[in-house]
Specification:
Distance between the termini: 7 Å
Largest sheet: 3 strands, antiparallel
Structural class: mainly beta
Shape: globular
Number of helices: 2
Radius of gyration: 18 Å
Helix content: under 10%
Strand order of the largest sheet: 1-9-8
């Protein structure tokens, strides 16, 4: 059966946040966007550190550094991690009053994660993270992006791949110290698989 490969996706583990670069959606729908739909408003990026105080990974979320991101989703070139309790404040500071975004939707890349280290939220690109290294497909397995696999969401937008021996490293990034996970066996989609590509594990899908 052929298969088509497609991306899905403390100091030692926390990756550096990616510097923001504005990305948008095609088509003009609201004032403030150029003809390509790019968010043209953000002249001076907001300091995300002012909105990123945390005491545990679950207190942090990823979002676009710009006002609207790419159809509402953060991308590798437009990414920041903030405290979930301050996400609305960050959006208000970034977008300003009366600001609107394009009427389009892009699923959030499940490999862009948020963690808490040293009392500050930090964005992680799991797709290229050192703890996600592999040498062959057999080194990798599919996993939900959530802390707990049981129960945990298993839709396509929630799945990534991890090295079979790095579960502890992954959980150290995304789980709270007192997290209590169930002991059931996760049921992942039958067409989901994990591959090793360019030295890192990646979720992929069978083409039927």
């Amino acid at each position: 059966m052929d298969r088509m490969r497609s991306s899905q996706p403390f100091a030692r583990l926390v990756a550096l946040c990616v510097a923001p670069l504005l990305v948008g959606c095609a088509g003009r729908t609201l004032a403030g966007f150029d003809d390509a739909g790019t968010d043209a408003r953000l002249d001076a990026p907001v300091d995300a550190a002012a909105f990123g105080a945390c005491d545990r990974p679950s207190a942090c979320v990823v979002r676009p550094a710009s006002c609207c991101g790419s159809c509402g989703a953060a991308t590798r070139s437009d990414l920041v991690a903030v405290a979930s309790a301050r996400a609305a404040d960050y959006a208000n500071a970034t977008c300003g009053l009366g600001w609107g975004c394009p009427a389009c939707y892009l699923a959030q890349d499940p490999t862009l994660l948020a963690t808490c280290g040293g009392g500050a939220c930090a964005a992680i690109d799991w797709a290229t993270h050192p703890a996600n290294a592999c040498a062959k497909d057999a080194d990798c397995r599919v996993r939900t992006r959530s802390c707990c696999e049981c129960p945990g969401p298993v839709g396509r937008e929630e799945l990534l791949a991890v090295p079979t021996g790095a579960t502890g490293d992954f959980m150290a990034l995304v789980c709270d110290a007192d997290a209590a996970c169930g002991k059931c066996m996760p049921q992942y989609p039958k067409d989901a698989l994990a591959v090793c590509e360019a030295g890192h594990c990646k979720a992929s899908w069978y083409v039927r």
